[in-house]
Structure prediction request, 332 residues.
Amino acid sequence: MSKNLHVAIVGATGAVGVELIKLLEKRHFPVGKLTLLASARSAGKLMPFAGDNVCVEELTEASFAGVDVAMFSAGGGISKQFAPVAVKAGAVVVDNSSAFRMDADVPLVVPEINGADIKRHKGIIANPNCTTAITLIALHPLHIEFRVKRIIASSYQAVSGTGAQAIEELRAQVAAIVGGQPVVKSVYPHQIAFNVLPHVDSFLETGYTKEEMKMQNEGRRIMHHPTFKASVTCVRVPVYRAHSVAVSAEFEKPVSLDRAREVLAKAPGLDVVDDPVGNLYPLPLHCAEKDNCEVGRLRYDCALDNGLAFWVSGDQLLKGAALNAIQIAEAL
Prediction:
């Protein structure tokens, strides 16, 4: 690819779209022309970029003429409909939805882990689930050292993972409760303020949710580890931004805490924040708007053979979505 690319963002007015625009500027991505695409109701909106304003256009089948890189963040239905159109027009698609993640012909990539897979793309590269990406940034370096067999994990997922309406719902509910007013709920089936919901995504016949199974299914593809097992409970918590995950991991080889710390300290995209005596451990509040994920609370797992327990936090709008997509585009 040449310098000064024509970049399109599909879903430009959404939470991830806004982050993509910011990151293109912040990371000096070689943008020659920026096309912002969204639904008809957002068309005409002005979005700031590089000291100027870019007008949002309605997404149509004709939107991708001359586009080099198209970043999609508008849901699986839109990706399935328009990503092939973009590829046909000559663009490489980086897709943030779940539409193509399990497609054998589409690389599913976390650049720090399996960046080499980008080379085998046929026009579309998939961005993984946000909770999976954040977890694997800490798990994969340990897997390389000790070879992971399985994990048992619980996620603590911020409302921004659901979108802008969910952020507003949490704000409104907190204000209502503080002001003694009745709570209104529309995004979630239950009150999210001062509550936690063990329910992220839709339920499957097994009793797991789709979100919970993504860790195992996507983890296998990203780590090239077809026997990896993950039993996960995904929980929505009243945090605005940044997901956290408590992980108990069992490995094939004997584990060493010192060696685990060494490995994690060198891992790209990850900061070790682990001093319990000094009350230092990863916090979603501190990880919000940071590129790197943070890992801490590292200890031998007392219930598993060759087990390590740890806690990882990361900004799901960044490493879990927009930053990962930009890193894929940079690698292209």
Remarks:
- The mean pLDDT is 96.
